[in-house]
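Reply to dn_fold:

You asked what the input looked like. This is it:
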Amino acid sequence: MKSRRIRGVVSVLGAFRAVCAAEKVARNGRKVHADAKSAGLLSCLASRSRALCALGLMLLMAVHLVPTALGAESVASEITAMPVGTKIEVRLKNKRRMSGITGQVSSVGFALVDSGKVEHQIAFDDVDSVKTINAKSHVTRNVLIGVGVGAVVVVGITAAVVVHAAKTRGF
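and this is what came back:
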């Protein structure tokens, strides 16, 4: 996804450069060399700062609106989709955070059972954001890091032995 955005920005800048070069050719009535194109691009960019600001604001708005346009889920649909017993952290609109396990879900809210086994009824309208809490262990990650470090050490020692053997044999 990121590479598509970068390619899009690069193509927009390339098109802008081509337009600036075409305008300079039209003004001068002759073809412009590569060095002059770079200088022309800078002068064209400086003279078109208002257009660049507008383009930048449009790109910024597009980046922020894409998740909404692609159907970012509402809090109610997120919580409704979770199975009962899911560990979650809820940030309320009054900036308070609560964590616990989801209970029964109704059309207007849901129950959150905290660590003290107290059940809190929370309305969907009061919730600002929800995230699931994954209590995963890092055993797999740590094993992979250890294997990677071991492989680097083995390759390094092997390379040192090969270089030493090549020097002593006169290669």
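The longest strand covers residues 97-105.
Hope that clears it up.
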